[in-house]
Amino acid sequence: MDVKVGDILQMKKKHPCGADTFLVLRIGMDFKIRCNGCGREVMSPRVKVEKNIKKILENDNV
Fold first, then answer.
1. Angle at 47 between CA 34 and CA 8, to 5 degrees
2. pLDDT digit of tens for each residue in the chain (62 aa)?
3. Which residues contact 16 (CB under 8 A, 6 or more apart)?
């Protein structure tokens, strides 16, 4: 997958707050993503995040 820091990911499943878009903060073995709805930051394994991505919305503002 071609995910970069600053991209916005639309996920298949929604966050408990109801939002389904996340901002990528860090990439490595784990992804650090921030929910665009409530602002909670989550560290999740790369495989789990990549499997759950519905669409990558590129963000040029970073």
1. 30
2. 789 999 999 999 999 999 999 999 999 999 999 999 999 999 999 999 999 999 998 776 54
3. none
Residue in 58, 47, 44 with CA at minimum distance from that of residue 8: 58
Q: Is residue 37 part of a domain?
A: yes
Domain presence at residue 62: no
Domain count, the chain: 1
Q: What is the span of the domain harbouring residue 27?
A: 8-57
Residue 3, in any domain of the structure = no
The whole-model pTM stands at 0.87
List residues bridging with 11 in a β-sheet. 53
